[in-house]
């Protein structure tokens, strides 16, 4: 490689770093583009490892905003995007989101959500659909549904009903999932 080629390569790498563009080998398309990526800081040390299998369960038990997408779901989507950005293949990304407690309402379809929230549709429905298309599994606590008088017909089609969030969380952790509380 001649001196000019090395200089151009170094300049391109520096510009990419300053612009926050990853030069990670194996970077893949973002699974949930509207969620974006976490910020980039030159010199970061701990980044996603494409050789690992990421089994993550996001435990959502408290209500979030009812007028915009839940920041915790956006964070989960950004994390999914960051794994893709750093070359972690889709078959090494196993994400589950568990809704229970007052977060159960975010598993509702638009009609059921609107009936409980002055006619407003579920602000998380589109994000959940996009994340589901990217392979994320969504679960809702059956006990929370009973307590909040929610029927199976009230749920988004992409959400699975489980007996109890406690069982879901314990079972997933026993299968090697890391729990992220939210």
Task: Describe what you observe in this structure.
The protein is an alpha/beta fold and 182 residues long. It has one domain: 3-Layer(aba) Sandwich (Hypothetical Protein Ychn, Chain: A), CATH 3.40.1260.10. 35% of the residues lie in helices and 15% in strands. A 5-stranded parallel beta sheet has the order 4-3-2-1-5, with helices on both faces. Strand 3, helix 5 and strand 4 form a beta-alpha-beta unit. The longest helix is centred in the first third of the chain and has 17 residues, at 3-19. The protein is globular, with a radius of gyration of 19 Å.
Helical content class: 25-40%
Determine the strand fraction and express it as a percent band: 5-15%
Number of domains as seen in the coordinates: 1
CATH homologous superfamily annotation: DsrEFH-like
Q: How many distinct helices? A: 6
How many E strands? 5
The averaged pLDDT comes out at 88
Radius of gyration: 19 Å
Task: Tell me what the CATH architecture is.
Answer: 3-Layer(aba) Sandwich
Strand-and-helix sequence, N→C? HEHEHHEHEHE
CATH class: Alpha Beta
Q: Strand order, main sheet: write it out.
A: 4-3-2-1-5
Distance between the termini: 50 Å
Q: How would a crystallographer describe the biggest sheet?
A: 5 strands, parallel
State the secondary-structure class: alpha/beta
Compact summary:
35% of the residues lie in helices and 15% in strands.
